[in-house]
Amino acid sequence: MSTEPSAYHRRVAEEKRAAILKAATGLFLASGYDGTSLAKIAEVAGVSKATLFKQFPTKAALFDAIVTESWQVDDAGSPEPPAEDLRAGLTAIGHRYVELLTRPGMTALFRIVIAELPRFPELGEAQFSRGKMPYFESVSRYLAAAHSAGSAKVDAPDLAATQFLGMISNFVFWPTLLLTDWAPDRSAIEQAVDEAVNTMSARYQA
User: Which ranges does the entry annotate as DNA-binding region (predicted)?
Assistant: First the structure.
């Protein structure tokens, strides 16, 4: 007799997980990390505390999951950035990065981390290790692949990834933490990505 959960039970578990993450995100944004309890999250999500604790035994684990999910890139059906064409590959990566940084709630999530960091340094660790670093490493791997494919000469892919992502985020994202009315239009964002690609191509294209 199989002990594996049925498709129905897996679907129910996934629905409850999604409800918990949605409720927790809303409460964290409204009340801050310290001002949000697991009991309140369970209440808003419409699940029992036992169900919540089964999936997320601590508030830190729940925040880790929110950060991890917020940095996931939905590229199902999208082709991999071509390693043999540096300009095309960087353009695709640049636009995906913009979509990631401009997601609803991304700025607010960073503000929570910054505000709560003195009391809860683990939030910064979660944002860095669960969110930013996996994405950064994917860009570094692409640049290393472009180097191997002969389309680029990148001896230090980590440094090159920092340069590329920094050129984009310094215009698109970081000002939003300090300027509530920062909202560059689509053409300005497109230009920022294009100029970052031009700079990288001039420096690294083989």
Answer: 37-56
What DSSP assignment string belongs to 116-165?
A: HTTT-HHHHHHIIIIIIHHHHHHHHHHHHHHHHHTSB--S-HHHHHHHHH
Q: Could you report the per-residue pLDDT of 12-35, keeping only the tens digit for each?
A: 889 999 999 999 999 998 898 999
Q: How far is CA 98 from CA 92, 108, 123, in A?
A: 10, 16, 23
- The burial of 117, by beta-carbon neighbours within 10 Å (0-12 exposed, 13-18 middle, 19 or more buried), is given as middle
Q: Domain coordinates of the chain in residue numbers?
A: 7-57, 86-204
Written as one letter, the residue type at 49 is K
Q: What CATH number is given for 7-57 in this structure?
A: 1.10.10.60
- The pTM score is 0.83
Q: Structure tokens of 34?
A: 């310290």
* Distance (Å, whole) CA 35 – CA 77: 40
CA dist., res. 201 & res. 155, Å (int): 14
Which of these CATH numbers, 1.10.357.10, 3.20.20.450, 3.40.50.20, 1.10.287.180, describes 86-204? 1.10.357.10
Q: Are 206 and 150 in contact (CB under 8 A)?
A: yes
